[in-house]
Specification:
The protein is 2% helix and 50% strand. The protein is an all-beta fold. The two termini are 37 Å apart.
Amino acid sequence: MGHLDCGYAGANSDIILLCADLDCGWRELGGKWGFDEQDFLPSEGDSKFRCRVRFIEKAPSNWESRRTFPERYLLNPITLGNNLVSLHGTKLEVDIPLTQDWVSTNDSNRRPSIYVMKEDVFEVETIDGVLNYRLQVWVVLHGQSRMFVKEERELGDGFAWVGGRPESNRRKF
């Protein structure tokens, strides 16, 4: 198992399951300690999902306990938007249903994506004090996007312009 494994949890490939091995992937990330990995998951045709998990500690830099991730178990999954997060020892799992709303990325490619973040997703009592953690999850579709982004229409002059009115220069995705 790598540091981040991507797969499908649903019978019809309708849920993406991300499994992060926090024990193996925990490292220094430019002043903070945490986990930051990405992987690709094949989809239908030539499409693929780029999946990324960033899970970092939020503690003063002199705390020694932030350098390792403690083994913890969550009895109930945490909701992160429409996604479920569970923790089994040092294994973090995120279930991402594909039926939720997707938004386009801010780059020029305007790819469909899911981005969720939660500050203080959970806390751990250590010898230094209470450690809080931030979790960020990205899923971006590379390839054909026919089923994920809703087509928006803007009404004008009795008919609809797909993507907005041409003179407004406000292209909607």
